[in-house]
Amino acid sequence: MAPTDPTTVTAEHPTTVTAERAAALRELLPPVSRRRTRIGLVAGGLGAYWPQFPDLLPQLRESSAYVAERFQRMDAEVTDVGFISDAVEGAAAAEQLRRADCDLIVLFLTTYLTSSMVLPIAQRSHTPVLVIDLQPSERMDHASFDTGAWLAYCGQCPVPEVGNVFRRAGIPFRSVSGWLRQESAWQRIEQWIRAAHVRAALRHARHGLMGHLYPGMLDVSTDLTLLPATFGSHVEVLEFDDLRHRVEQVSEAETRERTALARRIFAVDDSVVDEDFAWGATVSVALDRLVEDFGLDTLAYYHRGLDGELHERLGAGMILGASLLTARGVPAAGEYELRTSLAQLATQSIGAGGSFTEIQALDFEAGVVEMGHDGPAHLALSARDPLLRGLGVYHGKRGWGVSVEFDVQHGAVTLLGLGQDADGTLSFITSEGTVVPGPHLAIGNTTNRVDFGRDPGEWVDAWSATGVGHHWSLALGHHTADFRAAASLLGIEHREA
Fold first, then answer.
1. 154 close to 104: Cβ distance less than 8 angstroms
2. Tens digit of pLDDT for each residue in 362-421?
3. Number of H helices, E strands in the chain
4. N or C: which end of the chain has fewer CB within 10 A?
5. Helix 183-203 with 338-349: angle, nearest 10 deg
6. pTM: predicted TM-score of the whole model, two decimal places
7. CA-to-CA distance for 28 and 363, rounded, in angstroms?
């Protein structure tokens, strides 16, 4: 058995994260591959103009080619169905985009067009739509422009019409208006692409749920039908015997190899007992096989256990392997926190990481909220080499073993939780803050000190009033706007504290 749980306080460690270190971590823990986000793209204008103004269509096609090129540079699979000029071509484009199974469809309004040309695209695809209108430059040259030249700047003209028709058809309306090479407009467009990454990840995810609810944690309980009904994802119900069977098949050589890998990634504290380290490595190998065999994108787990029996040892030995899985893009959460593992997948899908987190304490003198968690963590968030610490006590849980400890990189962070309301509906809940320096407990937990720009007690009150629940995902950077957009695409509410 490992030594008793340490309760000393360590001084804040200097941040040593580098691009080289991050690349090394990716090399040691190659990310899992998933279905790419699919974006549909269609441009259009009113065909009645073409014979009237022969130079107009070539100019609009040039603009649409630039837009298509910008989309091809994004991290997504783009289905470009070309340029439509009337309702018949719009209906044909709608069929192509319906078959493409897109996560977001972008309508580029190059000049005026009728709403009848684009309504079928939104109706038949059953996919969220973003309308963009990007005129050729900042302003017209009024002295030299004739009607044909003006019409190239008239993409905004149909936007209110399309918005009205979408509302009457019960279709959510979203738009970005600007000019063709306006980077601020493209930043707004890219925000919707990041939101599409979240929708894609959740729509096709397979969530593993292993073990049972932590006794008494009513907020953690989640209606398993709600996730496929809301997002289209699948929940695979697992038993700890599924893991036990795979642990029994792990060879000693595989355990040694996994232990060696862990030593390359973690600093290993003197409190770590070799037997516990080897057990964690064995469970880690088995977890990888479990995830592969069931095709899992996330994993939430908990088992109470009793008197050191095998299932208790399995539950206690999961922290190392769950952290390695999370670093590879398969977020894992303890305490049966299915909604939090889903939130972690959402934050990972936009490249912001996402670590299993809860409130630990408040520092009213420094004006910060201390938060983190025992158990699995996202290693890419660490401000230093993550530490493996031996624990003889897992507070509130049975068992003992090795746990992951680090402080989070200093700078902007976003919390994302998944709430569930009285009527069963889900919501995205966010809050933005800044991780700042300060002392940390050395107790085998991930920890961070977050300044939310207000009294920490007031922040806790506001955060708790959102209905967020006990746990959430902590991600690097400020991304509330991204998750607000993602909530729009997913058809759920967004709240902010």
1. no
2. 999 999 999 998 878 899 898 888 999 998 788 778 888 899 999 999 999 999 999 999
3. 17, 21
4. N
5. 140
6. 0.93
7. 37
